[in-house]
Amino acid sequence: MENMIYAENLRKEFKKIIKEPGIKGSVKALFKPHKEIVTAVDDISFAVPKGEILGFIGPNGAGKSTVIKMLTGILMPTSGKCVINGQIPQKNRKDYVREIGVVFGQRTQLWWDLALRETYAVLKEIYEVPDDRYKKRMAFLNEVLELDSFITSPVRTLSLGQRMRADIAASLLHSPKVLFLDEPTIGLDVVVKENIRNAIRTINEEEGTTVILTTHDLSDIELLCERIVMIDKGNKVFDGGLSELKRSFGNIRTFTFDLMNPDDFTRLEYRTKYRLTDDDIAVKQDRSSVTVKFNTDKVSVEEIISYTLATVHVKDMQITDVEIEDIIKRLYRREVSV
Ligand SMILES: Nc1ncnc2c1ncn2[C@@H]1O[C@H](COP(=O)(O)OP(=O)(O)O)[C@@H](O)[C@H]1O
Ligand SMILES: [Mg+2]
Question: Which domains does the chain have, with CATH numbers?
Answer without folding.
Answer: 3-11+41-247 (3.40.50.300), 250-333 (3.30.70.980)
